[in-house]
């Protein structure tokens, strides 16, 4: 048997999963822009931290309340995770009310058992056994058991229209519950990563609902309001007119002896206008803002307000990148030498210093540079394939491929002018748009005509999935738990010609060496020390092909107010994920202490 330790201690993670294909991209990209001078001036007028605090913005005692501003809330009467717009996940539901079987801390690379204690596979990875925590209870006092998991997954298997069903229908052959704390999944094929469905990685993992609440209900219309979940807080009330969710500590919380957050109330609310939010922050009325950026935070602090923590070390899981349509019909774009030529035209240091929300660093690997990701790196291989800015090398590669410049400086290939369209899902002025603009300029300097176009929402998705594009300026996602998930995107078995909808390998990569290694990793236990050699081989094959080109690491600064609560993550002590819309934020709340006001 391949086992994971059964304990409440952190488990070092050495495993993989995919990202963009498995989950919709949550709100990880925030708007940036040049801030008005008068607003920054207002930040500098901040009162000293000793100023008397004003009344609470919530109908709860300020000193007992954690107040978090968030994005626009639209769903106020439903907690159904299986239908479109069925829940407001970022209003406290995933953060303080719902819990998951396991939590992954990307900062450290560790997994924390929670509603479950451990998992194990048989030697063939065709059977997964999950052992639940016998203490766990729903917030109505009923026990959380294996029957709830079986009910939830069976509901998904029987209703393919529900969100999340595709994570199980192709893979699950059978399920059983030998006892109240044990669930056994029998799989159709070997799958050493099936347990990732139950590990909260980016934002969340599989939602488990209570059988005694949902049984006999239509999952397409069920609201589950107020939500019956297992977390330390219950829904106290919702005030739609104020776009506010108020959560109150559950005095009967099942894990209170080991996890007892100090705030009596947690309030999530839609943030006001930027200038109003700055004033709320300076008055100590909110603990976490939603709208102002690093410039405003620095201005507030430099203006004399010292009750502010500025954390700017946590990376987005997805580095910004340039991604190439490598379909054989794309001519030069299908040639890895062209990928490298494009890479040599990217001035990562300049872009990292100037286009992101704050200065950041170039990316060498196609994943975030978390300490927990170091185990997937290989310096010797990375040094061999340095991603440097070198237009002369780019020009040399173009010449080598037969795309030589004419007397007018324009390059032709097989008798036709060389021209590409770069597309991006981000509006003009946003970092990804600026990165694409700079690439178009650099391509022009070496004789390639390049245009940049922004496509929104469904139009962009349609272009991407049908392969109707040349180059994308966006981001590189995939390595949530390990790179095997990322490399899955390059498997030839998922290839479909341009014009047909691709659910994977949207970039039409047909590199046999990379594909073969990706398939091999699909069936490798990432916890096996012997697997590192295969991961290294796949990394080298990836660099040789370079269908996705890393540009720079992406950092989203977060800001916290210490007027009422202390213990926030800092640059010096980034102990967990600081994003207040992720499920892991529950552990941040659990670390907070009253400031004594």
TrEMBL record:
CDD domains annotated for this entry? PBP2_TmCBP_oligosaccharides_like
Any one Gene Ontology molecular-function term assigned to this protein's record:
peptide transmembrane transporter activity
Q: Where is the Solute-binding protein family domain?
A: 110-490
Q: Which Pfam families match?
A: SBP_bac_5 (PF00496)
Gene3D superfamilies named in the record: Dipeptide-binding Protein, Domain 1, Dipeptide-binding Protein, Domain 3, Periplasmic binding protein-like II
Tell me which domain of life the UniProt entry assigns to the organism this sequence originates from: Bacteria
Listed under GO biological process in this entry are: peptide transport
Which PANTHER family does the protein's record reference? OLIGOPEPTIDE ABC TRANSPORTER, PERIPLASMIC OLIGOPEPTIDE-BINDING PROTEIN, PERIPLASMIC BINDING COMPONENT OF ABC TRANSPORTER
UniProt protein name:
Peptide ABC transporter substrate-binding protein
Q: Which organism is it from?
A: Reticulibacter mediterranei
């Amino acid at each position: 048997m391949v086992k994971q330790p059964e304990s409440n201690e952190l488990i070092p993670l050495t495993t993989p999963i995919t990202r963009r294909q498995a989950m919709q991209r949550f709100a990880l990209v925030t708007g940036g822009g040049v801030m008005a001078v008068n607003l920054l001036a207002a930040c500098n007028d901040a009162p000293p931290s000793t100023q008397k605090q004003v009344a609470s913005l919530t109908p709860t005692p300020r000193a007992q309340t954690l107040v978090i501003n968030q994005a626009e809330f639209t769903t106020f009467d439903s907690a159904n995770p299986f239908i479109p717009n069925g829940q407001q996940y970022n209003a406290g539901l995933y953060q303080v009310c719902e819990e998951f079987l396991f939590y992954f801390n990307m900062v450290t690379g560790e997994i924390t058992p929670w509603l479950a204690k451990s998992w194990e596979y048989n030697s063939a990875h065709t059977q997964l056994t999950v052992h639940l925590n016998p203490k766990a209870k729903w917030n109505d006092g009923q026990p959380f058991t294996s029957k709830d998991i079986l009910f939830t997954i069976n509901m998904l298997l029987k209703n393919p229209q529900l969100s999340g069903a595709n994570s199980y229908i192709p893979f699950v052959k059978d399920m059983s519950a030998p006892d109240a704390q044990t669930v056994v999944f029998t799989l159709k094929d070997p799958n050493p990563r099936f347990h990732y469905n139950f590990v909260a990685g980016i934002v969340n993992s599989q939602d488990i609902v209570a059988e005694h609440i949902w049984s006999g209900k239509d999952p397409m219309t069920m609201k589950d309001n107020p939500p019956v979940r297992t977390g330390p807080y219950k829904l106290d009330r919702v005030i739609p007119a104020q776009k506010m969710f108020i959560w109150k500590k559950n005095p009967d919380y099942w894990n209170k002896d080991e996890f007892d957050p100090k705030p009596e109330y947690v309030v999530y609310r839609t943030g006001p206008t930027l200038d109003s939010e700055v004033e709320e922050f300076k008055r100590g009325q909110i603990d976490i803002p939603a709208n102002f950026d690093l410039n405003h935070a620095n201005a507030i602090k430099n203006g004399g307000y010292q009750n502010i923590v500025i954390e700017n070390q946590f990376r987005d899981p997805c580095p910004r990148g340039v991604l190439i349509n490598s379909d054989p019909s794309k001519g030069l774009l299908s040639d890895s030498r062209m990928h490298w030529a494009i890479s040599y035209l990217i001035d990562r240091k300049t872009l990292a210093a100037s286009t992101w929300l704050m200065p950041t660093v170039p990316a060498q690997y196609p994943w975030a540079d978390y300490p927990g990701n170091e185990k997937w790196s290989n310096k010797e291989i990375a040094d061999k394939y340095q991603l440097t800015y070198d237009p002369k090398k780019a020009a040399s590669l173009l010449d080598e491929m037969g795309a030589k410049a004419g007397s007018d400086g324009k390059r032709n290939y097989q008798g036709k002018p060389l021209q590409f369209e770069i597309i991006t899902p981000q509006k003009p002025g946003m970092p990804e748009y600026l990165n694409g603009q700079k690439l178009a300029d650099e391509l022009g300097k070496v004789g390639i005509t390049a245009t940049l176009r922004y496509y929104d929402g469904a139009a962009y998705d349609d272009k991407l999935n049908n392969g109707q594009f040349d180059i994308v300026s966006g981001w590189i996602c995939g390595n949530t738990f390990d790179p095997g998930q990322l490399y899955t995107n390059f498997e030839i078995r998922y290839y479909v010609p341009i014009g047909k909808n691709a659910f994977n390998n949207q970039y039409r990569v047909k590199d046999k060496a990379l594909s073969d290694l990706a398939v091999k990793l699909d069936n490798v236990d990432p916890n096996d020390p012997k697997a590192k050699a295969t991961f290294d081989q796949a990394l080298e094959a990836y660099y040789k092909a370079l269908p996705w080109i890393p540009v720079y690491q992406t950092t989203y600064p977060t800001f916290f107010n210490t007027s009422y609560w202390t213990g926030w993550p800092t640059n010096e002590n980034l102990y967990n994920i600081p994003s207040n819309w992720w499920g892991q934020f529950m552990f941040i709340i659990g670390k907070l202490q009253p400031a004594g006001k």
